[in-house]
Fold:
Amino acid sequence: MDDTLFELPAQPALLPAERAVRTVESSVENPIARIILDTPFSWPDKDYDYLVPESLDEAAVPGVRVRVQFGSKRLTGFLRERGRTTDAGSLKPLLKVLGEPVVTPELFALADRIARRQVCSRHDVLRGAVPPRHVRAEKAVAALRPPLFPTIDPPEPSWLGTAPVSGRELLVPAGRSTWEAIAWSVHAALAAGQRVLVVVPTALEVDLCRTAISERLPAEPVALVEASTSPETRYRHFLSAMTGRARVVLGTRAAAFAPIDAGLLIVVDEQNDAMRDRRSPYMWADEVLRMRGTGRTFLRFSFPPRIHLPQPDTVSGGLWPNVTRAEQWAGDQRGLLPPATFTTIRRGLETGPVIVSAPRAGYVPALACQRCGKKAVCQQCGTSLAVPTPGTPASCATCGTSQWRCECGSAALRAVARGSSRVAQELAAAFPGIGVETVRRSSEQSTLPIVIATPGAEPDREFSAGVILDAGSRLASLSLDAEIEAVGRWARVASRVSQHVLLTGGVPPHLAEALAARNIDFIEPLVAEREALGQPPFHRWFAISGQRVDIQRLLGGIAARLEGEAPPEQGIAALLAGGGRQVFARGIHIVGPVEEADGVTLHLHEQAPAERLARVLRETLQKLGQLAVRVEADPII
Structure:
């Protein structure tokens, strides 16, 4: 018998069947509402189709919040658009329209771009961009009369120029005159018929900036978008910006998404940790502003700036103190409190208060063996030993034990760091009769002549002199941005000082000179090193965390979409077992994985803008659905 009679043709791979698109007939024009739902999961990220009942036809316009039935739950979402066709088999009706439109077409488009770039869902973006609804605030704004804005004449020329509205991106290290410079820029923009959006790190900076704008433009309403206000206040100000009742919007990180067509965008202290979202989409505020579109003027009041290519032009000006290192003073030796510290404080007190920046809080936060110098840690739990308050023995802050003996046999300890309380004690003894106080938060009021503050807690007050103790210790950080972060911390202190800032603790001369001149050239070697190592901003990195089996499934899906450039499934298992830095596909590298307490973490990176890697990551997550992995775009490494 001829065996060929029983041979069957090769069966092609099964492809997912496309759902048929149909036109829905209804008495309502465009009866299909496409909704971006706030679901308890991120993937798949798609529009869900619902039927618009006749009773909600007029209210169901693009941008409104709606409530729908999703399985057994009632969820809210944003109505993206309306149409006549759908591929859904059956349609449920909209249950309710919640208020007026709160998402503009510009914000929908921005959410699309961010979702593609950051490998996240669009609702991850909208959740942080639009505050929760507050009915009383909504009614209060709806009852207001149309705004009548005063006519504003152009301001007097300043060191920023005659008008900042030029469609350029500029870096402005303004120092103590930052708020006055921002107020002047707002004035110039309003006089030129432009609206303004200002984003700052914290509520304290919001108050300072608002005060400066109000002093220059007392009749100009300013909408505030910040989390520290009440839900009612935040929503009222958000709607004021949405409805055009404010030409100036000011706020913290979330204000970068504010619904205002601003011609002038301003960001302050962009490298501050508070300017990056700690959850998806993990965006920096300055990146959000940059993605809002070209043709707008973008002023970055930051020193030093975050690394971004290309670096913008710099506008020099503003008030800045003289900066020196302790090693520049004859007879000084490196140490926590060198003689130049007392000289600087003494001279500063002749004309005003003095601020001293201590790197750590507490009394004596770190100890070492007096004989061999080895760091003293608790032999029960591994925590560093410390002296919490004057007169108390060294002990462990975790388990409380005070028993310790070094491996060399010695039980004698010496201090290797002094906390802010210890510094205050020593300065009070050195300057008897002069008030010394320690502050822990920038919002604390300080009135005494000598103020001790830890990094980030510097009060908003003008000082005649400042001393930054153990300034070089920050450079020991393993972060790629250690030098940038260190100079940024020093600059925060210098921005509050009018005459002289002293750096102690082994600060390299080129960094002291960069701070003194507010010159960002010190970043150039760091940029060159990053380029050679394939680090940001030349490559985009994505951190992927989860269980090994889920990550292997994700990598397998990515490999399938790279059309044979990536290894097969067996090769992926070998990559996950190998560790280090390896080639995953053409132009794409894999770093890791590293074992974590709840799974593993690895990194994928590709040369910027890494659009291919972001695309296949997003497509794979869309396909696999609820995969238990976390993807963080542009992690801090």
Residues 135-314 form a domain with the Rossmann fold fold (CATH 3.40.50.300). The chain has 15 helices and 29 strands. The mean pLDDT is 88.
